[in-house]
Design a protein that fits this description.
alpha+beta, 2-methylcitrate dehydratase PrpD, 60s Ribosomal Protein L30, Chain: A, 4-stranded mixed beta sheet, two-stranded antiparallel ribbon, 22 helices, 51% helix, globular
Length: 472
Amino acid sequence: MRNSTMAVRLATFAAETELAAIPSEALERAKMSVASTVASAAMGFDIASTRIIRELELASGGAPDATIWFDGRKLPLPAAVRVNAVASDAAASDDSDLRSIAHIGTIVSTTAIAVGQKLGATGIDILAAMVLGYEVAGRIDEALTPGRMQRGFHGSVSTVFGGAVAAGRLLGLTTLQMAHAIALAATSIGGMAVSADTSCAREYHAGLAAAAGMQAALAARAGFEGEISVLDHPRGFLAAMGGQSLDDITRDLGASWDIVTDMAIKLMPGAHPFHATAEAAADAARQGNIDPDQIDEIIVSAAVQWTNFKGEPHPRNLVDAAHSLVYFVAASIADGHFGWEHMDPIKMADPVIASLQDKVSFDPNPAPLPDRFPHRHGGTVIIKMKNGREFRSTCKAPRGSGARGIEWADVEAKFRALVPRSGLPADRMEASLSLIRSFDTVDPASRLTALISCSSPAEKHNLGFAGGTVIT
């Protein structure tokens, strides 16, 4: 074993960290990520891109290892995690890492739950695997920011490590096997950012990252070996992606946890870098109890102006709406918030929101960034009225983010707002939410996947489900 390689150092941390070394706050955030991922998958379950991938994988068939959420049929591990990750990502509602908007939570949640179901793993072990997978993926992606984006690569090139590590941890990989899983993950995916910003390739990438991470862990367990120096080789992964501050990737491992400091739960749909600015827009409108007809101009000064990531006004579909900062701002002013309903094409055609979009302009000299992470900084909105009055608000980080703290009340509200869209009965929704809240005290994977997948009386009885509660 080449002990000096980065893959080995990360693998040592991922494979050998004791459960007791993982703080309870990190495990609690992992539960929140599970709830958010399940909710987002419910919203995305019937989107065309999700249906296509689901039917393709079902047509291929294979060993019934893990359950398709909100469906009930089973597929091999890589296929199941692909389908569930696509569903979670398709509705632009899954949680993000705000440093560079990598959707690590979707990958570690879908992967860990699938492997946990297959192996009968305990809930606490599933959560620990998620935390460790998130840490490795988050640290690698932080080093890639903003290099990979400047080169055109999507966050899936780093989220794949989350899947490999989470799966590897639950599969019991040795340190050397985990290093090879990480090495194989590094050479497994190359999603293009432009495709994610403008098409359904966004969720396609998520499916590939989950499946490739799972395959890397399974291959490593079977003895397949990759290039163990692929991360830090002069022609390796980090060099190709424009990595920087490389020593930070393995510095002080375990001193803090990315799932606590940088994960953010989406409490509204769409691109996470716009959420803080949308909050600022709604707050500025509330300050003046504003009549939209009396607005003369709306000026936005947002951190994302230092990137090419702000989209176009007047979207007419989910992909365009999710990536239109102008739409976020206009809708937030018109309706006092930006919510799940704003991904509906009917809402996109609202004449009041449409008129406000034409009044939005961008600050020609936005404030300089305090660091190299534009996506984790918010924005300011100034509303200028026809009578000369102005209303201004600034939001530095969105609700539900590590910077502001994440409340279970917000996560539960998201869960209850989105899960019914899958057709899941209310009693099963409440039972699954209760189970997620107690994930660290029960052995829940198979019961959770059953609760969010089937509803016959016989199955309820076998799960110990009665009267809206789960018998533990």
